[in-house]
């Protein structure tokens, strides 16, 4: 491994990302030199763009939406948790060999612990069916939740769970202890959006929004007005980044 690490975050619309600051802070704490870039690849050019990126002199990559599932096909191997979850957000490149990992699992699990949230035997609702949602659902299943409901714009089934659309959700009367937003709706710069309206909020106790920019999304504001405890995704971002470094330094 080179003495100077070359790393990057790959996704679309990365202007909101604070990942470089988090990773440079980690490098400072570890006494490591390196660079961390933001690389945007549009959907139409993803295959060619990502393949060329893997041929470069990077030591590792982070993958964010919408490519956490699609990037898997380019890996020479997958870690057990990435294989199980079906999505990757971290890539280690060593001697031209690529291995995909999922540190979102560790990030979300650690977010729950830090915020004193126990979801065992609780009814949970997930908004979204992307790569982050796959990691979240896996954590929930391992945590012994009572039931998981999925809300999706298009999919009828997600990880073996029947999904409802947003219209069905708006008329659903089942109480959910915790709602977890795994969609990018409400993320900077489109901060005036929310995946669900204030009027559709179901009585519950906790709202977790994986978005971290802005610090409080419109969805979180809706939830606060209803008296729910709200948590954003900043802790998850930090914990998954620390886990990624434990992989890159191996």
Description:
There is one protein chain. The protein has 250 residues and is of the alpha/beta class. Helix content is 31%, strand content 24%. It is built from eight helices and 13 strands. It has helices at 19-30, 46-54, 80-85, 104-114, 131-142, 166-170, 218-225, 234-248; strands at 4-11, 33-40, 60-63, 77-78, 90-94, 97-101, 123-127, 147-151, 157-158, 161-164, 178-181, 206-209, 229-231. The strands form two sheets. Strands 9-10-8-7-11-12-13 form a seven-stranded mixed sheet, sandwiched between helices. The protein has a six-stranded mixed sheet with strand order 2-1-3-5-6-4. The longest helix is centred in the last third of the chain and has 15 residues, at 234-248. The termini are close together.
TL;DR of this structure?
This protein is an alpha/beta fold and 250 residues long. The protein has 8 helices and 13 strands.
Low-confidence stretches: none
Shape: globular
Order of helices and strands: EHEHEEHEEHEHEEEHEEHEH
Beta fraction of the residues? 15-25%
Q: Keywords, please?
A:
31% helix; alpha/beta; six-stranded mixed β-sheet; 13 strands; globular; 250 residues
Structural topology:
Layout: E1 4-11, H1 19-30, E2 33-40, H2 46-54, E3 60-63, E4 77-78, H3 80-85, E5 90-94, E6 97-101, H4 104-114, E7 123-127, H5 131-142, E8 147-151, E9 157-158, E10 161-164, H6 166-170, E11 178-181, E12 206-209, H7 218-225, E13 229-231, H8 234-248
Parallel strand pairs: 1-2, 1-3, 4-6, 7-8, 7-11, 8-10, 11-12, 12-13
Antiparallel strand pairs: 3-5, 5-6, 9-10
Helix pairs in contact: 1-8, 4-5, 4-8
């Amino acid at each position: 491994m080179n003495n100077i690490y070359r790393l990057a975050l790959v996704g679309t619309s990365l202007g909101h990302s604070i990942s470089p600051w988090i990773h440079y802070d980690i490098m400072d704490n570890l006494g490591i030199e390196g660079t961390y870039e933001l690389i945007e690849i549009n959907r139409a050019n993803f295959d060619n763009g990502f393949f060329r990126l893997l041929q470069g002199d990077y030591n590792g990559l982070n993958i964010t939406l919408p490519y956490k599932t699609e990037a898997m096909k380019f890996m020479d191997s997958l870690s057990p948790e990435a294989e199980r979850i079906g999505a990757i957000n971290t890539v280690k490149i060593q001697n031209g060999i690529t291995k995909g990992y999922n540190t979102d699992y560790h990030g979300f699990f650690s977010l729950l612990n830090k915020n004193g949230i126990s979801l065992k035997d609780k009814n949970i609702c997930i908004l979204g069916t992307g790569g982050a949602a796959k990691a979240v659902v896996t954590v929930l299943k391992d945590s012994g939740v009572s039931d998981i409901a999925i809300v999706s714009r298009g999919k009828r089934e997600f990880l073996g769970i029947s999904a409802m659309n947003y219209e069905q959700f708006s008329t659903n009367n089942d109480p959910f202890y915790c709602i977890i937003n795994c969609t990018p709706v409400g993320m900077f710069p489109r901060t005036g959006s929310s995946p669900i309206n204030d009027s559709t909020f179901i009585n519950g106790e906790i709202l977790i929004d994986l978005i971290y920019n802005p610090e409080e999304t419109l969805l979180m504001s809706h939830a606060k007005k209803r008296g729910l405890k709200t948590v954003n995704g900043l802790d998850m971002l930090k914990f998954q980044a620390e886990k990624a470094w434990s992989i890159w330094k191996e």
